[in-house]
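subagent[fold] <- orchestrator: predict structure for attached chain, return tokens only, no commentary.
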Amino acid sequence: MRPRYIFSINEKKSHHLGNKAEMLGLLAGKKYLVPDAVVCSWDAYTLYGRDRQVILTDLKKELAPLIRIDTSYAIRSSANLEDEALHSFAGQFSSVLNVQGMEATIQAIQTVWDSVSSTGLETYLAKYGKVPGDIKMAVIIQEMISAKYSGVAFSKNPMTGLDEIVIEAVQGSGENLMQKGVTPDRWIFKWGDWTSKPDASDLSDEIVSRVALQTKSIAKDFGMPVDLEWIYDGTSVYWVQLREITAINDIDIYSNRIAKEVLPGQIKPLVWSINVPLVNSAWIRLFTELIGKNDIDPLDLSKAFYYR
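subagent[fold] -> orchestrator:
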């Protein structure tokens, strides 16, 4: 019996679909709006290197009743190691947009597979003690939505780790934001109010609020800070990617609210070298009384900024 390689993202049982596809399936399962998609499992990628022509022929047979001539698709990676907490692989694998027809779809799938062998990826993998052979590549074939606006949304500020929703948006496709470097409009939502918003934007406050509220809801449903990609087609907000925010676990945040009271004004290097260990050690003794034994370093509690 010929093995099956193409699966819907809505199928509950794991079929080696990769992290990105499985997260889209979970989003759809929670009733968030996700464009229709199927996934080519990584079993096809594994066998592709051994019997290329047979795999491509089998994929064409499976995709024949699914690929519509009048529809454009986004062909995207969904690797086994992708979008994990320790490494996101953002931008490391190829994506092919606006794909139409069977032949173009098959070619785009091969483009995603071939990106596993790129030189830049080898360097990225080496940082985590991995090699290209550790990658198992599933591929998402997802219906493209005609985007009036596209963007990203974070349930926590990815730069500071603060508990605020950050939304960025550009007109048209998300390709303008991710690949062409178009400067996006940005909104920051905190404690029920906008703390930052563009001076002028054609994207209505109602739509941005819809994105913010769904971002908050998704983060609550999945129990983690989330990094999302979304599309607005003029009527509905669609979600096309979900992953955990991976860059906020080790962010040091400093405030001068207390420091400017106990270390006021300009601090010369000699005064700094004496006062900082002395004052911060006193703080650590206070912390120890409150929270118990800890490994806080006095020098980690203050940083100099232009002699202040």
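orchestrator: received. Logging for downstream: Residues 164 and 183 are 21 Å apart (CA to CA). The radius of gyration is 24 Å.
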